[in-house]
Amino acid sequence: MTPLDGNPRVPPLTGVRVLVVDDLEQNRKLMHAVLEPRGFVVRSEGSGQAALEALAECEVDVVLLDVLMPVMDGYETCARIKADPRTAMLPVVMVTASGTQQRLRALEVGADDFVTKPFDQAELVARVRSLARVKRLHDTVLEQTVALERWNAELETRVAEQVDDLDRLGRLRRFLSPQIAGLIVESGDESFLESHRRDITTVFTDLRGFTAFAETAEPEETMSVLRDYHGALGELVFAYEGTLEHFAGDGLMVFFNDPPPCPDAPERAVRMALDMRDRVDDLALGWSRQGHQLGFGVGIAQGYATLGRVGFEGRWDYAAIGTVTNVAARLCAAAAARQILISPRVRAGLDERFETRSLGPVELRGISRPLEVHEVIGTTDREDDP
């Protein structure tokens, strides 16, 4: 705060801790009498060794150190104080009895200031206050430096954790919807990546006529069709919170009820397939104007599969392995344009809102026995969104 005269006032120091070191008791009492009434907290010791021991056990802001003491004089005491990293920055005021020679030696051993006996009380107090202020400033800077280092270390740890989370999220989003991947990253639980068995509903889709189209179309046209197709279907996979097993050209495999539980897996899979059919119908209008005749077929099956991470270091995928995936793929292959074919278990999981018709037993390539196949026509309530 700046007073009316425009000169900033430095707030007074309080509780300044002073260590007085003198072998004469009367000198120590004099220092107490001068400093304590002015708010200083004074501790006194009668020898250099006692002073060093005191500094090892208590915090001090300024040391008033007499030069002439037996056994360990003030010069040696000061040198030891400055040699200790813990007290190297502690201000030391040497109290000398004579002039230039003692002062010069005092500075050589590291003293920060000196007063000459007999000392002026006001000068002594001013010197102690000034050095105490410097010491407090140094302590503040040191505390801030330590806090900054700690904060930087915490920041580095957090950044590393966030980078790791982003890496994990990037890997998981390859086969999970963003919201599910985010939940797994937040929980830190990746146990689902280990091999396990689960009842899933699997959806296979592909484009009718795509092979013939790709043989005659320019590569750029093929990529443009696939880009639009993948974009439309991928958006719906995420909207319905399905697990994307893979894209392979015009083929797509999605399953439900793993990793996140999905009690309405058959219904959710069929609704997604119907929405996909609508999207591809829209795309097909544009493709037909360009001379491309492409249809859309879907196969859906329900059953147990073994799921988990497959691949090698640096390239992992999340896969479902089992007869259910083969059945869904064969149903998709058997579907005509705009047909959605489902297995008996999927049909059993649908209620009266879904319109279906039985196609009877159908022999599917690679499946040992004929399968009762149903076709999904539509629903009576398409207003329900995922």
Number of helices, counting only DSSP H or I runs of 4 residues or more: 11
What count of domains describes the coordinates?
A: 2
Overall pLDDT score: 85
Structural class: alpha/beta
CATH classification, class level of the largest domain: Alpha Beta
CA-based shape: rod-shaped
CATH topology of the largest domain: Alpha-Beta Plaits
Largest sheet features:
8 strands, mixed
In what range is the share of β-strand residues? 15-25%
The second-level CATH architecture of the largest domain is 2-Layer Sandwich
First and last CA, distance = 62 Å
Number of strands: 13
Q: Could you tell me the radius of gyration in angstroms?
A: 42 Å
Low-confidence stretches: 1-11
H-E order: EHEHEHEHEHHEHHEEHEEHEHEE
- Helix content range of the residues, please? 40-55%
> CATH-wise, what's the superfamily of the largest domain?
Nucleotide cyclase, GGDEF domain
Task: Give a topology summary.
Blueprint: E1 17-21, H1 25-35, E2 41-45, H2 48-57, E3 62-66, H3 74-83, E4 92-96, H4 100-108, E5 113-116, H5 121-172, H6 178-187, E6 196-208, H7 210-216, H8 219-239, E7 243-248, E8 251-256, H9 265-289, E9 295-312, E10 315-321, H10 323-334, E11 340-342, H11 344-348, E12 354-362, E13 371-379
Parallel strand pairs: 1-2, 1-3, 3-4, 4-5, 9-11
Antiparallel strand pairs: 6-8, 6-9, 7-8, 9-10, 11-13, 12-13
Helix pairs in contact: 2-3, 5-6, 8-9
